[in-house]
Amino acid sequence: MSKLFTPVQIGRYELSNRLVMAPMTRSRASDADGVPFDEVATYYEQRSGAGLIISEGVYPSASGKGYVSTPGIETEAQIAAWKKVTHAVHARGSRIFMQVMHCGRISHPSMQPGNALPVAPSAIKPAGQTWTATGQQDFVTPHELTVAEIKGVVESYRLATRRAIEAGFDGVELHAASGYLPEQFLASGSNRRTDEYGGPIGNRIRFVLEVLQAMVAEAGGGRVGIKISPEMNFNDILDENPQALYWELVEQLNLFDLAYLQMTRQGTPEIDYHALLRSRFKGTYLMGAGLDQAKAETALEAGKADAAVFGELFLANPDLPDRFQRGAPLNTPDRSTYYGGDAKGYVDYPVLQATEAA
Questions:
Q1: What is the pLDDT of residues 24-62, one digit of tens each?
Q2: Three-state SS at 289
Q3: Parallel, antiparallel, or unpaired: how do β-strands 8-10 and 13-15 relate?
Q4: Does 95 score more than 60 pLDDT?
Q5: Per the CATH hierarchy, to which homologous superfamily does domain 3-357 belong?
Q6: Is 180 marked active-site?
Q7: DSSP code of residue 28
Q8: Are 271 and 231 in contact, with CB atoms under 8 Å apart?
Q9: Residue 109 and residue 177: Cα distance in Å, rounded?
Q10: Catalytic residue among 43, 180, 273, 285
Q11: What does DSSP say about strands 285-288 and 307-310: parallel, antiparallel, or unpaired?
């Protein structure tokens, strides 16, 4: 039997297989209040053949929103909507973690409470644009967080963790990749602070460690994971010494007895960060980005990862595990429907049973 279809322990849970559905922003929430649409429950239920589903990025507080029509976990209405999702997934026998995503400076005043500036560790404007209700807008120079405000953001992660567990999620994942707020603190190019949160690596990793400490205090280490993406350099993120940065960060992650470390796309082919960091982390290691069935099986058999994370393949193939087991052809994803819209390209991808019946 392929190792993909053997059980694996992730934190406090034994998963039925090693296929993990990646967190993928789909922008199917009310832009006015961050409440997921009813189709969101169907979307995740359809993909419950995965041993573990990691939800799309969910903002912990309104100031963490960075894209139009993305969901939150701050209000009672949001919690109620997510309860429908977790109930649907659990009814199919799968597990689901919520990815908590604070976008920091990767936002725009039009999406912030009171049209305020987005927040960041330093007042450095990122290059690029973000999607707003009126189309693409240039990023702005963000507000540099005070130490007191940083403590407030850490608290928002703690409360988001509490609300996610209340909504029925099996755990939470800290999104510390893709140039969002945690990585903004990590990277020397976006963090020019001179206090305890800036300067040497030990200071720049402090924010991530404090957030993890808060999340673990609410849920326990066995229900908290983290995602990183060294040198992906997405959203104008750069660091002067990324190997040293992530070497130290991953060593410190071991303090929390986390459910897993998800290491996704890296931007420098000359450095194999999986090889560099996999042995450094003492818990369950999830490998993602660019995998197909053959690559995933090879990595698992070689001990390079404990589970494999699939994104676009799960997006277009709700029954991906079944297709892998049967050697069936895969659906082609429709990129024009990735973000926003209705059921088209979201919950209407065909599954094998329906295809065979037709």
A1: 999 999 999 999 999 999 999 999 999 999 999 999 999
A2: coil
A3: antiparallel
A4: yes
A5: Aldolase class I (3.20.20.70)
A6: yes
A7: -
A8: yes
A9: 22
A10: 180
A11: parallel
